[in-house]
Amino acid sequence: MEPSGSGARPAPLPPGEVLRVGAEAVLVKGEWLGGEALYKVRTRKAYRIPQIDDRIRAERTVTEARILASLLEAGLPVPGLLDVHLKDATIVMEFVHGARLKDVVGPLRGKLASIFSLVGAGVARMHGLNVVHGDLTTSNIIYESPLDSEEIAFRFVDFGLARHTASVEDKSVDVHLFKRVITSTHAGDYDHMFPPFMAGYEAHLEQQGRPGEFKKVERRLEQIETRGRYVEKSKRK
């Protein structure tokens, strides 16, 4: 299931097509009540005591499922939660059809600003619920609409590192990591991505009557970037 020497003990997988084998989990496209579903199975780790390993995997599964459920209830664009199996550390989710936003930037270039404004508003809504994604990248946004359509529909996916927090620092780190991904992976389209993202984030908070929260995140983001530049400069000495 993982490369030899990875430290993971084999775990039973549901029948279906293995889509991805990650460090923490395996994604399997299978069936649930006659329809398509995505199974996320947290793999066992041989370097942990089995009882501790079971507890850790179960706790992380519960946390992710609860966050996903809370975002669904709030109307965020995320996969539907179908079932949870704590014994197998497995979450069963709606299978979302589409491409990773990372892979379709080119065909969508004419409407990137509109897309990323909506992404920014979605992240602001998420942060308003005191949830940070933890791994906010263009790989973890599935673009559902046909590429030649005027419609814009997407889902945020992979909440394995998500957590509940009211910390401005944590929310700003979420934004900072997203900015770094855009800078490193989509540098040529940066102006059509990150500024609209921030504009969408700000617009949502203004609509909610909470413009001060955007200012806090913006200031903390600047502080985080300053710290990062200081660390890089220190490394070069």
Task: Describe the structure concisely.
This protein is of the alpha+beta class and 237 residues long.
How would you describe what is shown here?
There is one protein chain. By secondary structure, the protein is an alpha+beta fold. It contains 5 helices and 12 strands. It starts with 7 loop residues before the first strand and ends with a helix. The protein has 2 domains: 8-94, Phosphorylase Kinase, domain 1 (2-Layer Sandwich); 99-236, Transferase(Phosphotransferase), domain 1 (Orthogonal Bundle). The longest helix has 26 residues, at 211-236. Helix 2 crosses helix 4, helix 3 crosses helix 5 and helix 4 (190-207) runs antiparallel to helix 5 (211-236). Residues 1-9 have low confidence and may be disordered. Strand 6 (81-85) and strand 7 form a beta hairpin. The strands form 4 sheets. Strands 2-3-4-7-6 form a 5-stranded antiparallel β-sheet, covered by helices on one side. A 3-stranded antiparallel β-sheet has the order 8-10-11, with no helix packed on it. A two-stranded antiparallel sheet has the order 1-5. The chain is globular and about 45 Å long.
CATH homologous superfamily grouping of the largest domain = Transferase(Phosphotransferase) domain 1
Helical percent range? 40-55%
Please give the oligomerization state of what you see.
Answer: single chain
Total tally of structural domains: 2
Sheet with the most strands, sense and barrel status: 5 strands, antiparallel
- What's the overall average pLDDT, rounded? 91
Relative strand content: 15-25%
CATH top-level class of the largest domain: Mainly Alpha
The assigned structural class equals alpha+beta
What is the CATH topology of the largest domain?
A: Transferase(Phosphotransferase), domain 1
Level-2 CATH architecture of the largest domain: Orthogonal Bundle
- Overall geometry comes to globular
